[in-house]
Amino acid sequence: MRTIRVIGIGAGNPEHMTVQAINALNRSDVLLIPTKGDEKAFLADARRDICDRFLTNPACRILDYAVPVRRADGSYEDGVNDWHRAIAAIYERTLLNAVGEDETLGLLVWGDPMLYDSTLRIIDHVRTAGRVAFDMEVIPGITSVQALCASHGIALNRIGLPVEITTGRRLAEGWPDSSRDALVMLDGVQAFRTVTDPEAEIWWGAYLGTPHEILLSGRLAEMAETISETRRTAREKHGWIMDTYLIRRPATEAEEGPA
């Protein structure tokens, strides 16, 4: 039976590759690399760099595919679902036309497949369609959350307190009720600017793990404008941006517990 192997490749640094991920790379017969146009060529090039460094299986074939454009009209959820189905159709065609019945298709996933990545949901679309049978294996990877905390030299959580991992879209709708700490990914709206707590602190990072990495931190009220301007300049320079940040609001006395 065919196999789809989903390989977490880390947050941008080829050295984030684990031994398990390198072994999984070399046990794959076909590797599928997504391309997103000239502006995001770095993302495809980083995957190719990983293959150049770690792929020792000469029989492995590397294929590219152009990622479909997600439509912006209509509802956000409908647009995402249609986009996922379009990518699922590419996976399905690749399995049927380029992967033998006893071969493995490797998908190189930025970060870790379980955290704000849709590859596993897209594979579910392929499975539900039922036109091709396959097994699946998932290899974990280092996330931008880990890379952010490591680069800033901070712990993700405070002692005994939870952390909400959310998106910019959600944060813009209001601070989460479940936590005083929010780790934000996929923020295209600069939602940190909606946080008005004057005591809130932020640890922000862009292009984490890559040679373009940028780090800023401090009191949010004092750093918001700097982060916005840095973000704008970096996006103009590189044509794209991926950033992640942690915001901490002061804990209440009840949350802090006894000294």
How many independent structural domains?
2
- N-C termini distance: 58 Å
Strand content: 15-25%
Rg to the nearest angstrom? 20 Å
Helicity, in percent?
A: 25-40%
Mean pLDDT: 94
Backbone shape? globular
How can the largest sheet be summarized?
5 strands, parallel
Strand order, sheet with most strands: 3-2-4-1-5
Q: Count the strands?
A: 10
CATH architecture field of the largest domain: 3-Layer(aba) Sandwich
Provide the CATH superfamily of the largest domain: Tetrapyrrole methylase, N-terminal domain
CATH class placement of the largest domain? Alpha Beta
Provide keyphrases for this structure.
globular, 259 residues, 8 helices, Cobalt-precorrin-4 Transmethylase, domain 1, Methyltransferase, Cobalt-precorrin-4 Transmethylase, Domain 2, 2 domains, alpha/beta, 36% helix, five-stranded mixed beta sheet, 22% strand
